[in-house]
Design a protein that fits this description.
This protein has helices at about 1-25, 55-65, 80-85, 100-105, 135-145, 160-165, 185-195, 205-215, 240-255, 255-265, and strands spanning about 30-35, 40, 45-50, 50-55, 70-75, 90-95, 105-110, 115, 120-125, 150-155, 180, 200-205, 215-220, 230, 235. The protein has about 280 residues and is an alpha/beta fold. It has a five-stranded mixed sheet. A five-stranded mixed sheet has the order 11-10-12-9-13, with helices on both faces. A three-stranded antiparallel sheet has the order 2-3-4. Helix 6 links the parallel strand 10 (about 150-155) and strand 11. The chain binds arginine.
Length: about 280
C-alpha cells in the first residue's frame, strides 16, 4: 500500500514537472500564438480604430494559421517586449525589432525580414541638416550642440541607444546633448511639432508615416544614420518555435507574400485588420 502510494506520488510529481517544463517552453499546447508588440509603430504595427494592423500583425496572423493556432496580440511598452518573451508570457516578439548582439544575450532571433535605418526628424522650417548627405555630417552637427538641444526617441529602441549612447549596442551617443525617452515615437514627434524638443530619431519608415500625420515636421530621409535589420524573437532555447517561424518566413519570402505584405502597407493599399479572439 505504502509502495503504491509512493508510485502514485512520484507519478504526480513527474507530471507536475512535465507541465512546468511545457509551460516554460512557451506553452505549445495552447491554441494561441501570443505575440508581444507595441502597436504605435506604423506601418509595422498600429491601430486602426480598435483593431490591430500593420506588416508584423499580418505576418503574425498568417504564421499563427500556419501553425494551426489563433493569433493573440499583446500590446505593451516596447521596452517590455523582450521580458515578456523571456518569461514565457508571450510566445514571440514581433515589433520591428532590430537584431543586435546585446539583445541576443536575452532572446533568440529568427532570420531577418526587413532592413531599416535610423533617421532624424526636425521642424519643417529647420534648415540645420538640409545640406547633409552623410551620417557623418549630421553627427558632426549634433556633436557641436549643448545640452539645451533635445532629441526625442522611443524608450528602449535603437534610436534611444544611438542618441543616448550604449556600449552594448556599439553606440557612443551624443553625451553633449539631451536625449528624452517617450513611450511612443508619435508622442516625441508631437513634442517636436510643439517646439518642446529639437529633433526626433526613429526608424525610417515609421518616421515617414508618423511625420505624415503630424504637421510642421520633416524627415531628413535621404541620410541613414544606422543600418539595421528586423527579426522576430523567441525565448532562448525555444528551438521548436524558432524553426517553425523560420520555415514560415522562408515560405513567405519564396512565394513573394512578404514583399506583397510590406508593399501594401508602405503604399497604403493594405486592406487588413485583426481583432483578438475573446478568451
Ligand atoms: N527597430 C527599433 C528597435 O528595435 C525600434 C522598434 C520599435 N518598435 C515598436 N513596435 N515600437 O529598437
Amino acid at each position: 500500500m505504502k509502495k503504491l502510494f509512493a508510485i502514485v506520488l512520484s507519478a504526480a510529481l513527474l507530471l507536475g514537472t512535465a507541465v512546468a517544463v511545457f509551460a516554460a517552453c512557451g506553452n505549445d499546447s495552447s491554441e494561441y500564438l501570443t505575440v508581444a508588440t507595441n502597436a504605435y509603430f506604423p506601418p509595422f504595427e498600429y491601430y486602426e480604430g480598435n483593431a490591430f494592423t500593420g506588416v508584423d500583425i499580418e505576418i503574425a496572423d498568417k504564421m499563427a494559421q500556419n501553425m494551426g493556432k489563433k493569433l493573440y496580440v499583446k500590446d505593451m511598452e516596447f521596452d517590455s517586449i523582450i521580458q515578456s518573451v523571456k518569461s514565457g508570457e508571450s510566445d514571440i516578439g514581433m515589433a520591428g525589432i532590430t537584431v543586435n548582439d546585446e539583445r541576443k544575450i536575452q532572446v533568440d532571433f529568427t532570420d531577418e525580414y526587413y532592413e531599416s535605418a535610423q533617421v532624424i526628424i526636425v521642424k519643417s522650417d529647420d534648415t540645420t541638416f538640409d545640406a547633409c548627405t552623410t551620417a557623418d555630417e549630421i553627427e558632426t552637427i549634433l556633436k557641436a550642440q549643448d545640452n539645451n538641444y533635445k532629441i526625442g526617441t522611443q524608450n528602449g529602441t535603437t534610436g534611444y541607444m544611438y542618441s543616448y549612447g550604449d556600449a552594448g549596442f556599439g553606440y557612443d551617443g551624443f553625451t553633449n546633448l539631451t536625449t528624452n525617452g517617450y513611450t511612443t515615437g508619435a508622442l516625441a514627434v508631437q513634442d517636436l511639432a510643439n517646439g518642446r524638443i529639437n529633433a526626433v530619431i526613429i526608424d525610417k519608415q515609421p518616421a515617414l508615416m508618423i511625420a505624415e500625420s503630424i504637421s510642421g515636421v520633416k524627415v531628413i530621409e535621404d541620410v541613414e544614420l544606422t543600418s539595421e535589420a528586423y527579426a522576430f524573437c523567441v525565448a532562448k532555447g525555444n528551438t521548436e518555435l524558432l524553426e517553425k517561424a523560420n520555415a514560415f518566413l522562408k515560405e513567405l519570402k519564396d512565394n513573394g507574400d512578404l514583399d506583397k505584405i510590406i508593399n501594401s502597407f508602405f503604399d497604403g493599399t493594405a486592406d487588413y485588420t485583426y481583432t483578438n479572439p475573446a478568451r
